[in-house]
Amino acid sequence: MVPSPILKAKSLPTWIVVTGNVRSGREFQGMFRKALDLQKRGLADGILFATWKEELSLHPGLQRALAGLGICVVAIDPPPRIPQIHPLFHSYVFHQRKSLLAALRALPENCLVLKTRTDLSEERFDALTQALFAEPRPSLDVTLCSPVLQTRLFTFDARTDYLFYWDDIVFSGLRDDLLHLVNFEVSFEVLYSSHIFSAEMRLYAPIFLQHYPILAWFFESIPGEQFGCVLQRWAADANQPALPELARSILSAYFHILSRYVILPAPIPAPGQPLQLRDFFTDNAARGLRSFPTPWPSHKLHTQSLLDQLRRGENLAGEEIVSLHAKLEEMDRDVQTRENMPQDMDRATAELVAFAKSYGISLSPVTNDYYEGKPIETAISLETLPLPEKRFPPWWEQKTLGARKKAAHWMLEKIL
Questions:
Q1: Taking the CA atoms of the chain, what radius of gyration do you get in angstroms?
Q2: What's the confidence (pLDDT) of residue 368?
Q3: Omega of the bond leading into 295 within 30 degrees of 0 (cis)
Q4: Are the C-beta atoms of 277 and 321 separated by less than 8 Å?
Q5: Which of 176, 238, 248, 375 is in the most buried spot, having the most CB atoms within 10 Å?
Q6: 67 or 190, greater pLDDT
Q7: Model pLDDT for residues 81-125, shown as the tens digit of each residue
Q8: Structural element, H or E, at residue 54
């Protein structure tokens, strides 16, 4: 590993960023009380609230009240509404990103950011402060060769069998790292149509997909919810057959990120139990894993204990997790091993599909049809092929027709 200074919370200037609207007066006041208490204890250097200009207009005196408490306010205009390019695409993702970006730009460079929001945050914020500031304080350094981020990210929970579905209501990280995370991608529905992307995955996944090609291939080719079901049924299988090579490659890349770049809430006292790979896909509240039914069955990891045990290689049971630990250590040292692509992808994919089928799951990888251009004796003449003269009107006619259609809808709504 590359030697690195031990970076811990409060070894850098620390700012609390609160984003959102006043959805609940009680939660809004409670969140700022916690932020001010952390600042009073000397654990935060400043507090910043990012919201929309119209929100301050709706609550006269709010900006003045916050300023009186020493809280900085950044007020911006919301982004325009993005067309619905996918049934599960929601433009509120870009509202969240824009307010966070405005806040990060207003902060000093090289500071630690504790990001929260005006609602649904108090329990999560308590977990964040406990994880980062309780003694002994964890190291935030990413001690890898050519790391993707400089510091580890705190998140309240992370799903083990649905990749990058990490809680995004409260999280922390170095300001420059978070600036790299903020993205306004609309390509996910185009490139990765086999996946259903949540707002959380949109935040965390893109920067890592650039550095772990096997995960970019996975998102493009394998339906994520079906892959999670395969892992769960394999974990429940008493026979425990060996996982296919492709599944092991995907999991080693994901667990390398999860165990090296993430900090979860404070560890549960270690029960001294052996750790198997199947434990990460099995409901066990005593060890910090809980099943979660929406948007489909998956498992949330709520504590750092299992990741610490995997990272240290302590009390590991079974060939699957022992080889996973060895692979993670190899990926620490050698950037090339993070590519982790099987040499024969067609064979590896077929093996994974057959493995899923043995558990009654149709994995259905997304593939592209390819037709090689070879001369053939009975070739059809392109000149004599019946093709329409004009299938679509010119763009200016389409624009006119679209405007007329919108006007007609508007008039109809007014009449009704």
A1: 25
A2: 62
A3: yes
A4: yes
A5: 248
A6: 67
A7: 766 655 555 667 788 899 999 999 999 999 999 999 999 999 999
A8: helix 53-58
